[in-house]
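Q&A log
Question type: sequence-to-structure
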Amino acid sequence: MLVYPSGVDVSSSTLRFLAERLRRHRRAISSRWRRLNAGRQALLALAHLRMGHTYAQLAAGFGVGTTTAYRYVTEAVDILADLAPTLADAVPAGSTKAFVLLDGTLLPIDRIAADQPYYSGKHKKHGMNVQVLTDPFGQLLRASPTLPGAVHDIRAAREHGIIDALAQADVPCWADKGYRGAGGTVRIPYWGRWHSLSAGQQAVNRSYAKIRALVEQAMASLKNWRLLRKLRCSTTRITALVKAVLTLHLASSDR
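Response status: OK
Response body:
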């Protein structure tokens, strides 16, 4: 395999953030000498998450074995995933805002037609459902664990306990029409065909759509991490990957 210099479009502060967490982990487990120091391991993990490079590509570029590249990435991802905000963290943060935005997104995965539970009829592709909470300005508060793509958004929100948690904290939540009937504090646009709505209802829906566009931007910022654009790993690892990306996104946003 040929090797060439390349770049990873993340900030140096993000690299330092991950490298420091890896150093702490190594000290905690009394890790001995490794092929790569914490800084190089952090760069390897960022190249995988941000650029979507395969383990074989990473191994060739960093001069390690494929198994070592896999082990280093998995270790970094698990450390980052443990730092991701939980629902218990996100709801109090949302309670300080005027409202929160809730929406679901599909992370495409590499599956065959026989994998029916992962097929989303809405998106016409296989994937994993993720529920995203943001503040009124589109700043990410939380990304939920993943569920098969066939799961509808409202069912996913209920299974994750998002609707109940927001209701108990009395946090107003704006969602799209896919959450019709959610109850609690969830609000959706006026229901019905456009021509059947009054002028006032149409104006409300237009304003609603402008505000809800912010949650779409938040989800797009997650998918700037190219690994999430087409996942080819085991579905059991996707939740950890999403949490790791969320942690890095929040860390870079705080700087």
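Response note: The chain is about 45% helix and 10% strand.
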